[in-house]
Structures are given as C-alpha cells and as structure tokens.
Amino acid sequence: MQGIPGPRGPRGEPGEVRLPGVVVTPNVMRYFYTTDTLVALDPPLVIPANQFTDDNGNAVTELMEITSSGYSNLYINGMMQEGRIFSVTPDRLTLFSPGDVLLAGTPVILQVFQFSAQVVV
C-alpha cells in the first residue's frame, strides 16, 4: 500500500543542453569518356567502367556505387541528361535513348555523389 505523495520540492537548476551537431561529408567522383566514332543508341550503349578515366586522367576499374545516400549526374556534350536515359552500376554506364546518336568526339561525363553523416557531440 502506498501513502499520499508529499509536497513538491523546489525546482532545481536547469542542466546544460548539448545539441549534437551533424557533419556531412561528400565524396564526389567524376568519370570521363569520349566516343571514338559515331555511335547509334539503338540498342542501348553500354560503356564499361574500364573505358572511363578519372579527374587525373587515370584509367578506372569500376565506377563508384550509387547508394541511397547518393546520386549521379550524366553530361553528354556538356549538357545534363535526364535520369531516365541512363543507369549506372559499378561495372558500366548504360545509355537508353533510342533513335539518338552520339557523334565521334562527344564527351560523356558521369558524376557520382555519395554522402556520409556523423553525429558529433
């Protein structure tokens, strides 16, 4: 059995409030490819990862994976492309644009962005 509660005591001093901070760190990779010849996009064009170079002109073996905390942009001849015309996997870029062609010497630039977040107190 429990008795009647006693009187309420005086209010204490407020404690220190520490709001955590969040540090968001981007990781950005750019991949470069140039067509050698006229390329029809029927069927879809598949560019293997090892055909790309990085910002330093080095050959790459795979493209950065795009996870739920990232995204990609594709530029063809300097123009950003709609997301529906391409897909990216670590081993290739695939272009889906039936009826279109890429002229010889057309630059294809893929940007892949990944973000990580860390809570700091």
TrEMBL record:
DUF4183 domain ranges (all copies): 49-112
Lineage top rank: taxon: Bacteria
Pfam short name (any one): DUF4183
Designated name of the protein: DUF4183 domain-containing protein
